[in-house]
Amino acid sequence: MRGPLITMSAITGKPTKSDIYEYLSSLKANGINEAMLYPRSGCEIEYLSEEWFDTIGNFIESARMLDMYIWLYDDFNWPSGDAGGRVTAIPEYRLRAISTKGESIGQISYKSLHNSGLFGEKFFPDLLSYDAVDCFIKCTHEEYYKRFKKAFGTVIKGIFTDEPSIGYCCQDEYIPYYDGIEEDYFTFCGRDFNEDMRSFNEGFYLNAITIISNRFRACYIDKICSWCKEHGILMTGHLMCDNEPFWTTKHNGKLLKNLSHFLLPGIDEIETKLDDRTEMALLGVIEYASGENGAMAELFALGPCDMSYAKRRVTLYLSACHKIDHYFLAISHMDMRGNMLVKDYFSNFSTDQPDFAGMKELALDAQNAALLAKKDYTPDVYIRYPFSVSAKHITENLDLTVLFNLINELTYKQIQWKFIDDERPDAPIIELNDDLELVLDGKKFDISSISTSPLVTDKKGEAPKGIFVRKFNDGSFVVLNLFAEEGEYFIDGKRVLLHKHAVHFSSTENDTSKTEELLSKFDVGYKNDNIIRTMYVNSQINAEIYCENDTEVIFAIRKDTEAFLSGKKIICQEKASTLPSGMKKLYKISEKTLLKKGANIISSKNDFKYLPSVLVIGDFKCETQSSEICTLKLSKRVDTYSNGEEISDYGIVEFTTDTIVPYGAKAIELYGTKLFTQIYANEKILGEKIVSPYIFNIDKSLWNKRISLKITQYSSIAPIFGNVAYWDKNVEECGWRGTASPKQQPFGFDKICWIF
Question: Domain boundaries in the chain?
């Protein structure tokens, strides 16, 4: 089975043919066989120019040579439908909205009234215009097909549309407008559009949003899907605000029906906030829309870059429990210059992450998750998706907390539910009435009226919040620890230890083995120099490096800025070969520089959260301290290690010791780490793990033998960026902050035990 992990590969800079081949090779070597080509901020090639298509051709050719698949992206950045500004350059192809209340009633506006702050006041493409959508397809889809016809349906699997919307002009009292809406309204309900609007007819908004939704589906979704079918590829992507029923009605109309028309429907799950109030509602949407080609989710884009593999893994299985079997990994940067424009969050699926080799293990889990997605289950209750009530109150900014509370309470009571649209299954249906009250079969609903025996309980015999359970029709089940405390729970009556972000299957056996702790000092080997940034928040131009002893370092300075040591300019000339590959081209490095014992002031400007102006490289231990300016405290690295210590560093660290393997030892287990970890005995690998339990099997040929035991651990790229909590606390402007960092995962472990 080819792996279902697909990188959203951000094309930044001007990658050469060799750059592209090297990049795709690095993905394939680490378990990823598919890439979506994502023109994004930081790209220095004119979008849809001949140079752009030459670059895409190099990707396709390299993918063919490597036996990989390619997915296209249908615009520059997002939202889709504008072809990088070519559509809205034509005035009649600009999205319009009509005011339905107040003194401006009947006024038609082209101007963006969207209040997200992401787009400013720009024009948006009119996705209710057949001609505008034809223009979009001609500028993008047709141009790709003209050049790469032979790759369609072979190397090229599909094309991704990202948050196309009819609501970007529709704040407050406005709804989308198109030529002919009056006639369509009369055909649909036999009433006059303008008369109903001006008389506040109670059926106006529901009727209007319904026909607008139908128009959007026919004009944009069905048209592009038909084009993709005819050309042998899948149409995938997701719609705007798919986690919020009211806002998705404003932006897309009837979400469930519209999304179901995608050839490969998807959702936007980029925050990875597993305890968010809208999380389960979002997953319920894609479960409804999934079809014969499966379903997809865009995952992880808001980071952070030090998200544990355990959290990524449990997210894959949670997605699979809702029929998702394609996992789009956001973002995979070819280089990191896009972080000068998209400043506030960072996730990276590339070899810039020292622990990227752990993706091979995650890819195996992704294959298992994709198989799990094919399994069916029977809900205990259905929930009517609240399109009608949202449409009726489309100008009122509905607060649907009551719906989210219901969904979450059902989920964590382990009561299985599904969304329905217009269907009427022979089962209980919970709905929202016009007063935003929950009703079951027409009567006010109380969740206590639905009883079930939870599969998973805590020590009090209660269903714990944060534990997700899916019981399949074949009798199997899966238990996911999304955000509950790590500890012992009862699963189907059996006592089970659930680690943080654990995935537990019905076939998993309880561990009743005996253990014996390995007490040993380890030698510590650092496989690379440490790297950390100096930090300048807001208008600061100074940072401090405090050295316990005279310390030799190298500075890496971003090429578009400069830096000074105690007022003297730091001269940089050489290429920054010691940096991660995605940063090398963007920096130059100094010669070795001696920092004197005590305080050293480093001055610079134009610092970015995830693209620092100054990096410090050397053989040192570093602690970051917060004061009026950010201070780095440099000291000597430790060279021996005992269980429970912490080594906060960047890159790769080895722990080695000589020990005798006890007779009867079946395995060795590490406790207290979340890093990608490998273990070797006499330089022969015993295995590698990315999640707890970190158990590695021991061959009986090693019993009673003295061995050289080596533990190799890999960090994320996060330590390079220093104390980002200090940045977040002090920064004056932030557009869209990503998921909170779990903090750097230190090297080391709490204890090691032999298992018998």
Answer: 5-83+128-164+217-372, 381-505, 515-524+639-755, 529-635
